[in-house]
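Ops channel
N.P.: pipeline sanity check, posting one input/output pair.
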């Protein structure tokens, strides 16, 4: 569909821009640092080749599986700073005492991009430091394990207590690995290595705590992990809440302020909005389906001169509750409640799960029809016998079935309006076939 192609092009353009930026930073930092240090040319070539090879495979993987891309400028800058600092510390690591502070780049990527993506970069840093220091395989493995744990848990530092627990765990792992490397002989070298590594770990944890707690980049809705934490919070809510109770919570809230704040639906419609990223992470095929439905809803609403932003938001998140929890859709509703979704949009989204479906507004009707038509067309495309069925026939069947099932019963829709609505869908899909 045309919406998919547009989004794919936008996504691929962002990957290309990010790839060029990281290639330039990598080659520049490595080359300039080694020139200033008068390092051997073979090290410059080897480290550059490792960086280029890893970045090439990383962006190929990113493009293939369409993983989340960092968007916020502030976050990009922080990741680039951490990435550059790691490269510099790796290149000078054979001139100073070994400390794990060079892992700061992958830690920043975990905090401001994605934890699993940061592990890939950490792997690259481990190989680079093995080339610079000519260290043994077990030391590389030690560095990887330590950084792996940091990348996974750095985003969990929400208090000094959490930081303390993580510090104890990492120091324990650090001591065990040092003992293994020293053939389980406990001597002064193990104590010294553990102490230095512990100091480096503490520095990284302090930086992570400071950046996640006190440094506020403009990222109210920039992290998938924020949605995850809210999801966990929502799962702890009483699962006996039903949709009527959720709706009651909205009615008891100050919705005039909420609707005024979000009347242009700006944050919710941003492609880096936290709940949209969460939906993409959990069900990428449903994410693209939602984009198609949302675009179609906007066009239909604009044609009918109704609230096109409301229709677009409702179409975009129409499956959100089911994606979050298929068994208990109130969890998705709780998440929307946490993020101040306007009540009209939530009403339409929750109406999707009523049986029988009886939309209470024209915007809700547009969402129902658009979703039904796109789903039917996509389904028949996968059916070898019916993939060539005309879109006009599909649309006629969808309208007839919904008319028979009473989809239009709660709306005062004239025959003329009904025909106008159907004609728009027929014209819209004519160009796709």
């Amino acid at each position: 569909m045309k919406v998919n192609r547009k989004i794919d092009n936008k996504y691929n353009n962002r990957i290309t821009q990010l790839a060029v930026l990281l290639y330039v930073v990598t080659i520049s930092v490595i080359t300039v640092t080694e020139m200033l240090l008068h390092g051997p040319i073979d090290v410059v070539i080897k480290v550059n080749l490792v960086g280029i090879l890893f970045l090439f495979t990383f962006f190929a993987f990113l493009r293939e599986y369409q993983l989340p891309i960092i968007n916020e400028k502030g976050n990009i800058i922080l990741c680039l700073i951490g990435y550059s600092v790691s490269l510099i510390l790796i290149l000078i690591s054979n001139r100073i005492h070994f400390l794990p502070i060079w892992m700061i780049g992958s830690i920043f990527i975990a905090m401001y991009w994605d934890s699993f993506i940061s592990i890939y970069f950490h792997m690259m840093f481990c190989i680079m430091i093995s080339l610079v220091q000519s260290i043994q395989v077990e030391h590389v493995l030690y560095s990887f394990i330590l950084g792996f744990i940091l990348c996974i848990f750095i985003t969990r530092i929400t208090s000094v207590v959490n930081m303390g627990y993580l510090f104890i765990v990492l120091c324990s792992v650090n001591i065990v690995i040092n003992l293994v490397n020293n053939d389980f002989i406990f001597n002064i070298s193990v104590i010294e290595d553990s102490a230095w590594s512990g100091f480096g770990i503490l520095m990284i944890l302090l930086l992570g705590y400071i950046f996640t707690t006190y440094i506020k980049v403009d990222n109210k809705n920039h992290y998938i992990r924020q949605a995850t934490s809210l999801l966990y919070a929502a799962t702890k809510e009483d699962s006996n809440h039903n949709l009527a109770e959720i709706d009651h919570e909205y009615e008891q809230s100050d919705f005039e302020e909420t609707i005024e704040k979000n009347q242009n639906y700006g944050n919710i419609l941003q492609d880096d909005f936290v709940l949209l990223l969460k939906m993409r992470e959990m069900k990428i095929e449903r994410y693209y389906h939602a984009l198609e439905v949302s675009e179609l809803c906007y066009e239909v609403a604009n044609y009918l001169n109704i609230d096109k932003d409301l229709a677009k938001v409702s179409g975009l998140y129409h499956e959100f509750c089911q994606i979050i929890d298929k068994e208990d859709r109130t969890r998705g509703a709780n998440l929307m409640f946490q993020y101040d979704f306007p009540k009209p949009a939530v009403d339409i989204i929750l109406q999707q799960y009523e049986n029988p479906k009886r939309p209470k507004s024209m915007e809700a009707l547009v969402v129902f029809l658009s979703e039904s038509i796109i789903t039917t067309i996509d389904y028949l495309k996968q059916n070898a016998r019916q993939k060539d069925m005309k879109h006009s026939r599909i649309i006629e069947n969808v309208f007839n079935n919904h008319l028979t099932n009473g989809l239009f019963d709660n709306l005062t829709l004239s025959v003329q309006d009904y025909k106008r609505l159907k004609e728009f869908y027929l014209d819209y899909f004519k160009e796709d076939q």
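N.P.: looks fine end to end. The chain has two domains: 2-213, 224-430.
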